[in-house]
Amino acid sequence: MSELWNLTTGWVGYLQRGPVLLQLLVAILPVMAISAASRVLPRQARFRRQHRLWSLALVALGCLLLIALGQRSGLAIYLGSVYAWWVGIHGLRCRLEPLVDPHLLQQIDSGLVRPIFVVVAGLILVDKVDNLEDVAVVPLGSWFGASVNVGQVGSALVILYLLITGSGPLAVLLARLLGRLLNLTEGSCRGLALMIRYLVVALGLVWALDRTGFDRTAILAIAGGLSVGLGFGIKEVFSNFISGLWLLFEGSVRPGEVLYIDGDHCEVRRLGLRAALLWRDRDNTELLIPNQIFLTTTTTTFTGSDGMRRCQVEVSAAYRHRPREVMELMVQTAAAVPKVLPKPGPVGLILRYGDSAVGYAVRFWIANPMEATAVSSAVREAIWEAFQANAIEIPYTQVVLHQA
Amino acid sequence: MAVRPSPTTPIPRPVAPRRCARTLGAALLALGLLAGCAPQTGPQGHGNRNARGIPKGTAYVLIGSFGQEQLSQALVEEQEELVRLLEADFQQLHPQVSLQLALSREGRIPAELEARQRDGLAPDLLLVSGTTARELHRRQLSRPVPVTPELTRLLRPHVRDRLRSNGTDRQLVGVPMLLEPQLACFNRQRLPQSPTTLAALEEASERGIEVGIPVNVIDLYWSAGALGANDALISATRGQRLTAAQQEGVLRWLRWLRSANMRERVNFFSHQEALLQGLIGGQLDWITCRSTSLGRLRKALGERLGVAVLPNGPAGAPTPMVRQRVWVFGRDSSPNQRAIAEDFAHFSLSPMMQRYLTLHTQQMLPVSREVSMPTGGSPVLAAMVRSELQSRAADGISSRLKSGDPRVLRISQVLLEMMFGQRTPERVRGELVVLLGGEP
To answer: Residue B1's pLDDT is what?
Structure first.
């Protein structure tokens, strides 16, 4: 590690050279000065919007001046190009914002494009001040029985990062393909995508360690020691992780599933390493529930074997109406409501003979469990209209008082 | 919701400008401090040292590495070993000086240096072969060295003359530092003595000795002299017509290469590094090697390592190409860095250091005429001295065939195709003459 430190601090010596300092000033000073000016002049909105372009123009002018004066200019041109690319990426993102899902855009921009850009720009800069191939063999010491160098660790980290960030879309694509081939449900496809991703990252980790040259026996020994530590220290986290994997294999709590939690139906959005993220549409709330809860408590799911849900709407009618007529009207009315499935069709029931009225219910099926509340509300409204049209009374509670 | 101030409301002074000014100031200060922490740039000439005339600061040294193999930690340590030894002694005189070493492939150095000069980041000092030093001089990427009386006194004449520029001023393209002869390295457990003739080498391979030979024409050239092709190939580089005897000599060499490749235990490798790894790993028993690899081989093989001159052939002694390692001065140095580079190069030429490096490492031969070639005590040094003497016969071609020359790769490729039976020796002879007679 000390060799790497000596190497990198040694690069400071280039600042002894006047031409290097001059180039740094030409490339950095305009950017900082214009950035500062854009904040100093808050009312100049146009200037604030275009301050990056002004900076670029000034850097370009400075580079041209260096070339005209016969001075060294390669470093300034490179730094200016890096800034131009950076501004370009920012501009491209602004252009794409109305066209692409903002969440996806954010993920691609900050998770993939910008990190790759920073790493590549950094490596090119290192290659300018030193030989990259030479820097790659600088030793970092001996870890787990293996002598590792900058190149091995750097490439292993980059590949792992790319696997973690870039394996998501690839896993989704592969899962969809398999889902189509094997006729899997949407939830199964999402679960499969997650499992593929875990598998790719796990294999990538093993490959990265192997490529770096770590002694496998030493890694196993350390993993054994760590597992004891895990048992005591972070057993909850580990338990949640294992629960998450189990749930994925079992398939009961996968992204896309609809569960009944605390009196509300919620959709599973994501099954993470530690917890599952659920969405409750009643109040647009997201619930973060530790994975092991699902494994240790009873969970009601609407999407276990199929995605249909049976709903029930209760209503009362006066004793004077014939029950068969009332039930037929309720069934017909429910069947006419959109999103109520024709097969299996709605069913009318007498629930009770109450003090003031006969209690009826209509049960019907819907395809999307998350729409139960909305469809039930529509059925209730339609029944009220139908009762009005057919002069069927929904009586108030009748109380007979006897006065002595 | 943000409340906009009315036109009459006094606008509080924004905090941002102060913060920005502070940031800008801090950035400039940091740059200044870094420049300040870096060793100071002094005035021009010899006044660029401190008041007592002692140089201080960091100088950047680029070392050229031969071959096309991937850099490894072992290779880097091997290439940097001599400079590190010198640096350690130099720092006793100048404790405030440090050297930042980097390694690059010899063939890539001219292009790399061109790019780094555009950035102002070229190294202050380069340790390269004589041919690369000439190339850098031709492209005006290095500072020529005037032939001072001190250099004339210090350097062996034939070593110095190899580095004369072609210009009228006859300056040197660099300052020679050491000579790297080519030798035979072998495993003494498997082979008590190195074969003294090619026939003996072939016999040894018949007995089960694994022989490793590089396919690169520069490292293979020793066999050309032993088989009588040296004069012909030198004539070809001069564009002269070959005599019948010379043509026969070339053909003998090519046929030997082809027949050697047919032998079960004679192995040709494209990279010198593969030969070294083979000897260290026990897959090979006899290889050709450069003297600078001896340190690594000694560490790995210990007493088992044997070193000797390359074998003679039916036409006489071998003609190995000795590599000359030369200090070349960059053009981007600050006055202070220039002073360090010059002092360091001259320090390496001092008779004491030349003697110390030669005897201590036994990996190089001195270029200083004030250091006698030590042959008595060490058989390794004796082999190196003999190899250097043999190499003078190949001066005619080594001065024309540079390591970065595209013809080197082309000729190596043609030889390889012949050894694998894709071309006949007769056809290859004609192609060699054309290639050597042409421009690089």
So the answer is: 37
CB pairs under 8 A between A and B: 121
- To the nearest whole Å, the CA of A214 is away from the closest chain B CA by 17
Cβ atoms B402, B237 nearer than 8 A: no
Centre a 10 Å sphere on the Cβ of residue B248 and count the other Cβ atoms it contains.
Answer: 15
pLDDT tens digit sequence for B139-181: 999 998 888 888 888 888 888 887 887 766 678 889 999 898 9
Put simply, the answer to whether B17 touches A131 (Cβ < 8 Å) is: no
pLDDT at residue B77 is higher than 50 = yes
Mean pLDDT is lowest, of A329-333, B123-127, B375-379, for B375-379
Rounded-to-integer distance, Cα A375 and Cα B108, Å: 74
CB contact under 8 A, A128 and B39: no
Residue of A nearest to B57 (CA): A13
Closest-CA distance, A318 to chain B, in angstroms, reads 55
Q: Are strands B57-65 and B97-105 parallel, antiparallel or unpaired?
A: parallel
Measured between beta carbons, the chain B residues lying within 8 angstroms of A133 are 70-71, 103-104
Quick one: CA torsion of B234, B239, B241, B245, rounded to 10 degrees?
A: 10
> Which residues, listed in sequence order, are joined to residue A143 by a DSSP beta bridge?
A146
Reported pTM: 0.70
Cβ separation A36–B14 shorter than 8 A: no
Cβ separation A16–B100 shorter than 8 A: no
pLDDT at residue A342, rounded to an integer: 92
Q: What is the DSSP letter of A112?
A: I
Q: Do A78 and B100 touch (CB under 8 A)?
A: no
Q: Nearest Cβ partner of B119 from A21, A35, A75?
A: A75
Task: Give yes or no for a contact between A258 and A251, defined as CB atoms under 8 angstroms apart.
Answer: no
Total residue count of chain A as it appears in this document:
404
Check CB contact of B332 with chain A, cutoff 8 Å.
yes
Give chain B positions within 8 Å (CB) of A151. none
List pLDDT tens digits, range A153-192: 888 888 888 888 878 778 888 888 988 888 877 767 777 8
A interface toward B at CB cutoff 8 Å? 7, 10-21, 23-25, 28-29, 32-33, 35-37, 39-40, 42, 72-75, 78, 128-131, 133-134, 136-137, 139, 147, 149
Q: What is the pLDDT of residues B23-70, one digit of tens each?
A: 556 655 665 555 555 544 333 334 345 544 567 788 999 998 876 667
